[in-house]
Structures are given as structure tokens and as C-alpha cells.
Amino acid sequence: MKVLKFGGTSVGSAEKIKKIAEIIHSEQPVFVVLSAMGGTTDRLTEMVADAVEGRMTTALKSAGDLKKHYDLTVLQLLGKDAAVAMFYVDIIFNSINVKLKQLPLAKAEKEILSYGEKLSTFLFHQLLLKHGLHAVLLDATTLLPLDGDHEPVMNEIEKKLWIEFNRYPEMHVFITQGFVCRNVWGETDNLGRGGSDYSASLFGAAINTEEIQIWTDIDGVQNNDPRIVENTRPVRHLRFDEAAELAYFGAKILHPLTILPAQKAGIPVLLKNTMHPEDAGTRITASQKGRGFKAVAARDGIIAIRIKSSRMLLAYGFMRKVFEVFETYKTPIDMVTTSEIAVSITIDDGRHLKEIVSALRQFGKVEVEEKKTLVGVVGLIHADEPGYARQLFNALDDIPIRMISYGASRYNFSLLVNTEDKVRTLKALNSRLFHNELIENEEDNVMNMVAD
Ligand code: ASP
Ligand code: MG
Fold this sequence. Notes:
Elements: E1 2-6, H1 14-27, E2 30-34, H2 40-52, H3 56-78, H4 83-100, H5 106-130, E3 136-137, H6 140-143, H7 154-167, E4 173-177, E5 180-182, E6 188-190, H8 196-206, E7 212-216, E8 237-239, H9 240-248, H10 259-265, E9 269-273, E10 282-285, E11 292-308, H11 318-328, E12 335-338, E13 342-347, H12 353-360, E14 365-380, H13 388-395, E15 401-406, E16 412-418, H14 422-451
Parallel strand pairs: 1-2, 1-7, 2-4, 3-4, 7-9, 8-10
Antiparallel strand pairs: 5-6, 9-10, 11-13, 11-14, 12-13, 14-16, 15-16
Helix pairs in contact: 1-3, 2-3, 2-5, 3-4, 4-5, 7-8, 8-10, 9-10, 13-14
């Protein structure tokens, strides 16, 4: 059984939801994970913020507007068979109205946020039933428990899924919500924004599926940011590590945590476009295909912290002490560069910046630079093949580079640049380095596809 996840844009309208139903028809047996319809989670989040900040009338009005939108979608989707779904939409929006008034209760907020996925899965289930396709709708709050550290409990997920499969032995289509889960206190919770991809990967790993398909509105991973650079092209194959790097760097493809469960279980992830199902998309597996630079992505909002200390010279234990400060404030470090008397560290979570900086001052002089962008270039960039660094530096000839990291893996160069230079950087990489490499890669990809 394959796991197919459809994102918010794929379930963005009645017409698109029908398209998914066609895809499901040809892929059975299948486990379907859905996001909320595009924009819904954003609107629910705004409503919650309005209610918490005392703008209850605005919050209730937004809920009313959103309900109208759903009423219309239900009619477009189900026509004369819309009654059950209409009733469900009523129940959900009544509940939203009640829960908005219970805010700022965290429990009420999380329930409200889960309604986007509850709605999309319910409507989709109704559509399949209308077309005579038997399908079971499962409630993700019973399938995906988290532990006290907010981490998914894999063996529980596995157990719960098998209970359901055994309960419906004749069934070929299972549907559930992405993003939604249950926390250690038994409450409805979520995996964070964009978390439906992660849900799909967790479910896929739990049932040891043959393939996890993530359906979006682009033809797979692009080699550069299509919002900034023209003529981007899809990358046909990525290794798990390359995809994880790109996802972290902000390529709008996948929730960054998605790769890990699939990688651990050795399950290929296929990224596809709902509007062009015939397009090959991008396949992410454990094997390496193609050489050289494959893709680039950039992440804004990065903070660079430099600690200068002569005490670092020939000392041991210095790094541990520095890193411990970040651990104390639960702030992940992204990139590190060192010299004998200084260390530079980047973070993207500045919530505890003040405390971190004052704690670091005990070790030496601390400088902070904000408004930086981390640019990740991925591909198979072998240290024993000369020339990659030269190509990169040539391409970025006139762009100031604040930090650079290479050699941690064979798969990426990371560069820190000023955010004001981001567009220039991405364009320069595309035209001066990337374009030629891509043609080579594509040939490789073609050969590899034949070899598959
Ligand atoms: N609906 C959630 C969001 O918009 C989860 C997802 O789409 O992956 O963040
Ligand atoms: Mg998404």
C-alpha cells in the first residue's frame, strides 16, 4: 500500500479535490493523507490571534466568511448529495464559534487549528462515497500520539494503524488528516505548520510502505527558487540528505522533518504535481545519481554570532562550553565556522538571543549580525574532485560572503550572505554556475532513469 499526501493547494478547490479522487482511483490500495484546503490554516490562525487579542467580532466575522466559502465548496463538490457534508460543516463552525470564546486556552486553539484537516478529509471522503468508492476515514488524533518531548511514538502509530487495517480487511482506501496528532495529555495537537508532509512520512514508515508520494502544485523540486529566478528546472532525483538540506534551507517543497522517517525506513519519497500527474516529479532515495551541483535554496532571518577569544588558542573544552549555552536556551545551531581565536555560529531562532549573548560574554567578545541569509548548494560535490570551490567562488565573484561551510558532508556548500544580496546570489548561481551543471545532471538523470 502506498501513502499519498495531498497539500493545501492540491485540495484548494472542489475541482482540484475531484482531480485527487481520479489519482486515488488508479493507485489503490492507498493510504491518503490530506492537508487543509489552501489558506484555511492561515485563516484559522488569524481568527485565533484576533480572539486572543480581544477582537472577538472580527474573529467571529472571519469564521462566518470561511463557513460561507465551505458551504459553497461543498455544493460544488457534492451537488445534490451535499446534505451530510453541509451538516458536518455546520457542526465544525459551531464548534469554532464556541472555542473562539474559550481562548486563550491552548487546548481550544489546537482544536480550532485541527479543523482545517478535519474538513478537507471529511469532504474528500464524502466525494469518494458519492462515486461509489469504498473508503474509511480515520481520525489522526487516534493514530498519531506524541510523547512528552512532543516526538511521535513510532511503535504506537504502527500498532494503531494495524488495528484499523485489521478492522477493515476488505478496504483499499484509507484517508486521514495530516498535521493533526494527539499530545501526551490526550489532547488534540499538531506537528507545526506544514506538518502534513511529516505525518505522511511517519505513517509511511509505520506501515513500511513501498513509496511515500507528496503531491503539491509544482513539478517536483526546482533547482532554484522559482519566485526569484527565472528558468528554474525540476531536479529529477535527490538523495535523502540532499533533500533534507534543501528542505531546511527553505526550498518550498517539504517540511524539513519529513525526510527522516522515510530515510530511516529506506522508503523512497516521490514529489508530484497534482495538476500534471504525468510529470515524473522528483524522486528522493538513498542512492546517489548525478554529479556536481544540483540545486540551491535560501533561508532568510538568520542571525550570525561571533565569539572572539584568545583563550580559545590551543585550549580544549572551549567549544563545548559555547555549545552548552545554545543547549541551555534550546536554540538549534545551523552553521559553525572556526579559527584559532574565534568561532562564528548561526541560528534562526532569535527568541533567546539576549540571554545567549550575555551568557557568551563570559568567554570573550561577542558580535551579533542580523538580516543574514543562508544559501545551501546541494549535489554530489566530492572533495577529491577538484574545481567545485573555484566554480562557486567564480560565480559569486562580487558578492560579499560572511561565512562558508564545506566538507561536513559531501552534499553541500553553505554560504552566509547579507539578505539584501540574496536575489543577486541566487541569480548568479543560476546563470554562472548552475546552468551548465544542470545540463550535465539532466543527462545523468536520463541515464539513471534508464538504469532504474
Ligand atoms: N494545514 C497545515 C498548514 O497549513 C499543515 C499542512 O498544510 O501541512 O500548516
Ligand atoms: Mg506543505
